[in-house]
Structure to design on (822 residues):
C-alpha cells in the first residue's frame, strides 16, 4: 500500500480528522465502560468486604467468648482475660476495642486495666446490621456511624450464659479498604483507557491511511490526469472504492477521447465548410450581356462540390463546376488544390480540354490513387456569344434554346481527372463550342441534383425532370431557373435528408424580357484576385507613375506610345484606350486624392504571360497589338481616399436634360471601352482597379439605350 | 503637350467660330463654355474648330453637349469642324454625332449653317 502525501488540502478549508474523531470516541466509550464496570465492581467489592469483615468480627467475638469461658469461672478472670484482649488489639490495630463482660455486665477483660471492674458504657446509636451475617446463638452484630460491634455470649458447659465478649471495629477501616480497592481499579481503568486510545489511534491511522492515496488520485483526476491510476492494495472498502475510482477514470478517459474526437471532427467539418465557402464565388457575375450565377447547398457532411467563375485577361470568362470524390476536409483540400491550379491556368490555356488535361497531370501527381475529380470547364466569350467547353467525366450540360423553348443535353466523353494516370485523359477530352443567342441559358450541375433520391429512396430526380424545370423557368431568367431547380429538388427529397452537396451554375444571355445587365463592374468581385493581379503587374507589368494632378495624366498618351505592344495600336481603338485610361486615372486624381499634387499612384499594363515576347511585341502589327491588348489587362493602384464608384448606366443622350447636364460621361467612356472595370477600394494594398480592354461597338451606346 | 487650351474667336458671317488648340478637360472646358455662350447671347451660331485639340476629357464632352443644348434651346446651332483623331474617336464611341454635327472644314460648316 502506498500513500501520496503530496496533495495538500486547501489552506482555507478546515478538516475534522476521522482518526481523531474515532480515537476520541473510542476513549470516551472505553472510559464510560470502565467507569461503569468499576462502579459495579466497587459496589460488589464493598459488599463482599463488609460481609467478610462482619463475619470475621463475629468470629473474633466468638473466639474471645470461648477463650473467656473458663476465665470467668475463675477467681481472678481479669488476670487471664486482660492479656488475651491486649494481644488481640495488638495483633489487629484496626479494632476499636475488645471487651469481656461478666454476667453482670462488669468489665473483666480490657486492654486498659483501669477499666476492669467498671461497667461498660453502652455505645450510643447501635443497631442491628441488616442483613445479618450468619451468626450463632447469642451472637449479635450491631453498628453505628463509627463502629461495627460484634457480641458473643460467653457460656458455660451447661450453656448457661456467664458473660459477653465484645469486639468493635472502626468502620473507617472498611472505608480505607474500599478506597484502596478503588484506587487499584482507577489505576487499571487509566491504564486500559490509555491503551484503548493508543490502540484506536493506531488502528484508525492504519485503516484510514488509504484515504490520502484516494484523495490524491481524485485530485489528479480533477486536474485532468486520467492516465495515472490509484495504486492501493487494501482489502477494506477503501480498496474497493479505489478500484471503482480507477474504473471511473478509465470511463472518463474513454468518454473524453470520444468527445475530443467528436470536437475534432466538428472542427474539421467547420474548417471544411469555411474552406469550401472561401473558394466559391460570393456573387453573381456579369460579363457583357451574360449573367453568370451559381448556387451551392452544402450537405450536412461537407461534400466535394466546387464551382468557380474566373475572370481572364482577355475578357473571356472561365466557368468551372467540379465534384471531388471524397468528403470532409480531405475533399475540401483537393478542392482547394483544384482552385489554386485553376487560377494559375486560367489565362495559360485557351482550350478547356488542354486546361483539363493540365489539371489531370498535376492532380495525378498529388492525389492518392482512387481519388478523382469530375469537372466541367468552359470559356465564355461574351463578345462572340460562344462558349467553348470540355468535360472530364462530369454531368452533361443543359442548354435552353429561347427560340425553340427546348432544352438540349450536351454531353461529353472525357474521363474524370486523375482517374487514370499517365495522360490517358487527353485521348478522351474534346472541346465543344456552343453559340448562345439572346435568351438562351446554360445549366451545369453536380450529381447532388441529378441523383437526389425521393423520400422513399427509390428514384432519382434525374436529368429529364431537370430539363422540365429548366424549360419552364428559363424564360424568366437565371434567378428563376436557380430558384426553380432548388425548390424542385427540395420537394423531390421531401423529408429525406440532403446527403450530397448540390451545386448549380447558370449562364444566361439577356433577352428583352430579362434585359442584359447594365452593371458591368462586378467581374472578379474577389479583392484577393485583384491583389493577385496587382502582384502580377508588379512582377512583369509595364508601369507609369502618375502625380495626382490633371496635367500629369497627359503622360498616359506618351506612355502608351512607348509601351509595346500598345505602341503599335492605331485607329479609334488606340484613342479609346487613351481616353478610357485618362478617365479612370482622372477619377483617382479627383475623388481619391482631391488633386493633391504631392501624391502619386501607379498604372500598369499587364500582358498575358504568353504574349510577353519582346521581339514580337516591339515589331507587332496593329492587329497583333489589338489582340494582345484584349488578352492583357490594366491595373491602377492608389492610396487615396476610397470613393464609391457610381453604378453606371449608359447615358441616354436623347434626353435633353442629360445632354445639358453634361456629367457622368467619363463612366460611359470607361465602360464602353473596357470589357471589365472593377474598383476594389481599401484592400491591403490600397485601392486597386482592374481593367480589361474590350470596346463595345459604337452603335451599342446611345442608340441602344434609346 | 501641356494642359492649356488656346481659344481664338473669329466672326464669320454672323457665326462665331472658335478655334481651339490644346486640351479640353475639367480645367479648360469652363473657359470654352464661356466663349461659346457668347454666341448664344449674341444670337449667333457656333462653329468649333477642333483640329488642334490634343485631348478631350469627359468634362470637355460634357461641356460640348451642354453648350449645344443651350444653343438649341436658343434656336441656334453648334457644329464641330475637323476634330482631331482623339476627339473624333471619342465622339463616335459615344454616338454623339447626332447632337454634335461634324464637318470637314469651317467653310463646309458655315455652308451647312446657311442652308439650315
Amino acid at each position: 500500500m502506498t500513500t501520496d502525501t503530496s496533495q495538500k488540502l486547501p489552506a482555507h478549508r478546515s478538516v475534522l480528522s476521522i482518526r481523531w474523531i474515532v480515537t476520541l470516541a473510542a476513549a470516551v466509550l472505553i472510559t464510560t465502560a470502565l467507569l461503569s464496570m468499576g462502579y459495579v465492581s466497587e459496589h460488589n467489592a464493598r459488599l463482599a468486604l463488609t460481609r467478610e469483615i462482619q463475619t470475621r468480627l463475629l468470629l473474633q467475638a466468638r473466639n474471645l467468648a470461648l477463650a473467656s469461658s473458663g476465665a470467668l469461672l475463675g477467681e481472678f478472670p481479669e488476670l487471664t482475660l486482660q492479656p488475651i484482649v491486649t494481644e488481640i488489639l495488638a495483633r489487629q490495630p484496626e479494632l476499636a476495642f475488645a471487651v469481656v463482660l461478666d454476667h453482670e455486665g462488669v468489665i473483666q477483660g480490657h486492654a486498659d486495666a483501669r477499666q476492669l471492674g467498671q461497667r461498660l458504657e453502652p455505645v450510643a446509636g447501635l443497631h442491628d446490621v441488616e442483613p445479618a451475617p450468619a451468626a450463632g446463638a447469642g451472637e449479635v452484630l450491631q453498628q453505628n456511624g463509627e463502629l461495627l460491634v460484634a457480641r458473643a455470649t460467653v457460656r458455660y458447659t451447661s450453656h448457661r450464659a456467664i458473660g459477653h465478649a465484645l469486639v468493635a471495629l472502626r468502620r473507617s477501616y472498611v472505608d480505607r479498604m474500599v478506597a484502596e480497592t478503588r484506587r487499584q481499579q482507577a489505576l487499571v481503568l487509566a491504564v486500559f483507557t490509555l491503551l484503548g486510545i493508543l490502540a484506536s489511534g493506531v488502528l484508525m491511522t492504519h485503516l484510514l491511511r488509504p484515504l490520502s492515496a484516494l484523495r490524491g488520485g481524485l485530485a489528479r483526476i480533477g486536474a485532468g490526469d486520467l492516465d495515472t491510476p490509484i495504486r492501493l492494495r487494501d482489502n477494506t472498502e477503501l480498496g474497493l472504492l479505489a478500484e471503482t475510482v480507477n474504473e471511473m477514470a478509465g470511463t472518463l478517459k474513454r468518454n473524453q477521447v470520444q468527445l475530443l474526437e467528436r470536437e475534432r471532427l466538428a472542427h474539421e467539418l467547420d474548417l471544411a465548410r469555411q474552406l469550401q465557402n472561401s473558394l466559391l464565388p460570393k456573387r453573381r457575375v456579369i460579363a457583357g450581356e451574360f449573367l453568370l450565377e451559381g448556387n451551392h447547398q452544402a450537405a450536412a457532411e461537407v461534400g466535394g462540390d466546387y464551382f468557380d467563375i474566373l475572370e481572364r485577361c482577355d475578357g473571356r470568362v472561365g466557368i468551372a463546376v467540379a465534384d471531388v470524390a471524397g468528403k470532409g476536409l480531405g475533399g475540401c483540400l483537393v478542392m482547394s488544390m483544384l482552385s489554386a491550379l485553376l487560377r494559375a491556368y486560367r489565362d495559360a490555356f485557351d482550350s478547356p480540354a488542354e486546361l483539363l488535361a493540365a489539371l489531370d497531370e498535376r492532380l495525378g501527381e498529388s492525389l492518392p490513387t482512387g481519388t478523382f475529380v469530375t469537372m466541367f470547364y468552359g470559356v465564355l466569350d461574351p463578345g462572340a456569344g460562344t462558349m467553348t467547353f470540355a468535360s472530364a467525366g462530369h454531368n452533361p450540360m443543359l442548354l435552353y434554346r429561347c427560340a425553340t423553348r427546348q432544352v438540349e443535353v450536351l454531353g461529353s466523353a472525357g474521363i474524370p481527372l486523375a482517374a487514370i494516370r499517365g495522360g490517358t485523359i487527353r485521348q478522351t477530352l474534346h472541346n465543344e463550342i456552343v453559340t448562345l443567342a439572346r435568351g438562351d441559358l446554360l445549366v451545369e450541375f453536380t450529381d447532388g441534383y441529378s441523383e437526389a433520391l425521393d423520400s422513399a429512396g427509390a428514384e432519382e430526380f434525374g436529368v429529364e425532370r431537370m430539363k422540365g424545370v429548366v424549360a419552364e423557368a428559363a424564360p424568366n431568367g437565371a434567378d428563376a431557373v436557380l430558384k426553380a431547380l432548388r425548390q424542385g429538388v427540395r420537394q423531390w427529397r421531401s423529408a429525406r435528408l440532403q446527403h450530397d452537396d448540390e451545386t448549380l451554375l447558370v449562364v444566361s444571355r439577356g433577352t428583352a424580357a430579362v434585359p442584359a445587365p447594365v452593371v458591368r463592374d462586378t467581374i472578379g468581385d474577389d479583392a484577393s484576385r485583384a491583389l493577385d493581379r496587382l502582384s502580377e503587374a508588379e512582377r512583369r507589368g509595364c508601369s507609369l507613375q502618375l502625380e495626382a494632378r490633371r496635367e500629369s495624366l497627359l503622360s498616359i498618351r506618351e506612355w502608351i506610345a512607348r509601351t509595346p505592344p500598345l505602341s503599335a495600336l492605331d485607329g479609334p481603338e488606340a484613342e479609346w484606350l487613351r481616353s478610357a485610361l485618362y478617365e479612370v486615372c482622372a477619377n483617382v486624381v479627383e475623388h481619391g486624392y482631391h488633386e493633391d499634387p504631392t501624391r502619386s499612384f501607379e498604372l500598369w499594363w499587364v500582358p498575358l504571360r504568353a504574349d510577353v515576347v519582346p521581339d514580337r511585341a516591339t515589331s507587332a502589327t496593329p492587329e497583333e497589338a489589338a489582340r494582345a491588348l484584349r488578352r492583357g489587362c490594366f491595373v491602377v493602384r492608389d492610396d487615396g481616399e476610397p470613393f464609391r464608384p457610381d453604378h453606371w448606366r449608359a447615358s441616354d443622350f436623347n434626353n435633353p436634360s442629360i445632354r445639358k447636364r453634361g456629367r457622368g460621361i467619363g463612366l460611359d467612356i470607361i465602360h464602353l471601352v473596357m470589357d471589365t472595370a472593377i474598383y476594389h477600394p481599401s484592400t491591403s494594398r490600397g485601392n486597386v482597379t482592374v481593367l480589361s480592354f474590350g470596346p463595345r461597338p459604337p452603335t451599342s451606346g446611345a442608340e441602344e439605350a434609346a | 503637350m501641356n494642359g492649356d487650351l488656346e481659344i481664338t474667336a473669329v466672326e464669320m458671317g454672323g457665326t462665331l467660330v472658335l478655334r481651339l488648340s490644346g486640351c479640353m478637360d475639367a480645367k479648360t472646358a469652363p473657359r470654352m463654355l464661356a466663349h461659346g455662350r457668347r454666341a448664344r447671347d449674341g444670337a449667333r451660331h457656333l462653329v468649333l474648330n477642333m483640329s488642334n485639340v490634343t485631348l478631350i476629357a469627359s468634362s470637355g464632352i460634357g461641356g460640348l453637349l451642354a453648350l449645344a443644348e443651350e444653343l438649341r434651346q436658343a434656336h441656334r446651332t453648334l457644329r464641330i469642324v475637323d476634330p482631331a483623331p482623339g476627339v473624333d474617336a471619342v465622339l463616335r464611341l459615344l454616338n454623339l454625332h447626332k447632337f454634335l454635327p461634324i464637318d470637314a472644314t469651317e467653310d463646309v460648316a458655315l455652308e451647312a449653317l446657311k442652308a439650315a
User: Anything to note?
Assistant: The mean pLDDT of chain A is 83.
